[in-house]
Amino acid sequence: MTDIVVPTLGESVSSATVARWLKKAGDAVAADEPLVELETDKVTVEVNAPVAGVIASIAADTGAEVAPGSVLGSIQAGAAAAAAKPAAAAPAPAAKPAAAPAPAPAAASGHAPMPAAAKMMAETGASAAAIGAGTGKDGRITKGDVLAYLAQPAAAPAAAPAARASRPSEAGEERVKMTRLRATIARRLKEAQNTAAMLTTFNEVDMSAAMGLRAEYKDAFEKRHGVKLGFMSFFVKACIAALKEFPAVNAEIDGDEIVYKNFVHMGIAVGGPSGLVVPVLRNADTMGFAEIEKRIGEFGKRARDGALKLEELAGGSFTITNGGIYGSLMSTPILNPPQSGILGMHKIQDRPMAVAGKIEIRPMMYIALSYDHRIVDGKEAVSFLVRVKESIEDPRRLMLDI
Asked: For residue 166, what pLDDT is reported?
């Protein structure tokens, strides 16, 4: 027998949920054929067959929480196993429930918390009684449960379970359990609001010069590099220049220390089928316009296909999000912890502007910088946004690195 094992899930990811099995016990499979999808806090991961053969057993059913290295099932390897498929298929329906019993109700589980949850509970003093029912397999408390509890406003311990109780459904309502990714997005956004001293500063950018430069060179750019010239590369380059001048916006707080970074790993927020994800352009400060555009295009396509890799979502030092593609005129972006800054781009809209004493119609964009005031001072934040504005309004500054 060959075990089907949960692979390493990437940086800071300690567990996953079995989203669905693509095969069932008794099915013949080829080597490297996808068998099961695991949903992590960030992306969906496919686990492939380690060998060719027949699935002999399934040890973790849909909805089970699993850790790296744990066994999902087993395969009877070899050609003989594949030939035995008809005989193996008959008992499969009875074997599956026996291999993966239904989780016990959380309220009566009595199981110890997951290791990561136990560690966090010890560090924070949170008790199992205060947290209440866990969402892990067999009702075990997970790290996400602890974070959700800690994110709640201060209250009497007895009030915590009551706050989690659902109200009765009304006619016409439909209840759908949150996906792991959506629950993580909700938790992390609330965590950012509760942890960081988050403020937002706004400015507006005249897009005339950038639009003119793009219109003049877009055909030659696409012919030379095989990719379209968009505005995102202008903003990435402008932010990189500003981050070099104001390094606190590219830093993070770790305990009682500030970690300054001599590189820019630029997160680009993109919409996927399950929600917003932020793939990272590592060492974006070493890239040119063409490479930035190519990488962003690849990220967008693979985000829509659900094919992003875990390592591509980790380690960002600053983030750009573009609500303008959905028609947003102005918004307040929320930090992506542990980062200290995020730039929000918005819709380009023609507006009357005073230019050299005259009213002219110009294509304008509001931009917003949300920042952690614990590490970034207001003067730095405002100056950072002004530098971004100056670079976009005079793109020659980006070419000349001034």
From this structure: 64
Which pLDDT score, from 0 to 100, does residue 199 have? 94
List the single range of 22-31, 204-213, 381-390 with lowest mean pLDDT. Answer: 22-31
Read off the amino acid at residue 161: P
H or E element in which residue 204 lies: strand 198-206
For residue 51, report the phi and psi dihedrals to the nearest 5 degrees. Answer: -145, 165
Judged by average pLDDT, the poorest of 85-89, 350-354, 376-380 is 85-89
- pTM score: 0.63
* Alpha carbons 7 and 288: distance in angstroms, whole number: 34
- The dihedral over CA atoms of 235, 237, 238, 239, expressed in degrees to the nearest 10, equals 90
Location of structure tokens 């680009």 = 268
Concatenated DSSP letters for 19-74? EEESS-TT-EE-TT-EEEEEE-SS-EEEEE-SSSEEEEEE-S-TT-EE-TT-EEEE
If one counts every other C-beta atom within 10 angstroms of the C-beta of residue 219, the result is 11
Among 3, 32, 219, 373, the active-site one is 373
Question: In this structure, are residues 141 and 161 in contact, taking their beta carbons and an 8 Å threshold?
Answer: no
pLDDT tens digits for range 303-316: 888 788 878 888 89
Task: Determine whether 254 is an active site residue.
Answer: no
Query: What is the crossing angle of helices 232-245 and 378-393, to 10°?
Result: 140
Strand pairing report for 34-39 and 280-281: unpaired
182 half-sphere exposure, CB direction, 13 A CA radius: 7
Average pLDDT over residues 259-280: 88
Q: Which two tokens stand for residue 153?
A: 């406003």
335, 192 Cβ separation under 8 angstroms: yes
Using pLDDT thresholds of 50, 70 and 90, give the confidence band for residue 133: confident
| DSSP conformation class of 165 | P
- 176-230 confidence digits (pLDDT tens): 877 766 777 777 778 777 888 999 999 999 999 999 999 999 999 999 999 999 9
- Residue 265 a catalytic site member: no
HEC readout, 257-312: EEECCCCCCEEECEEECCEEECCEECCHHHCCHHHHHHHHHHHHHHHHCCCCCHHH
Non-local CB neighbours of 138 within 8 Å, separated by 6+ positions: 103, 104, 106, 109, 111
Please check whether residue 333 is in contact with residue 321, taking contact to mean a CB–CB distance below 8 angstroms.
yes
d(CA 76, CA 89): 13
Q: Of 3, 219, 350, 377, which is the active-site residue?
A: 377
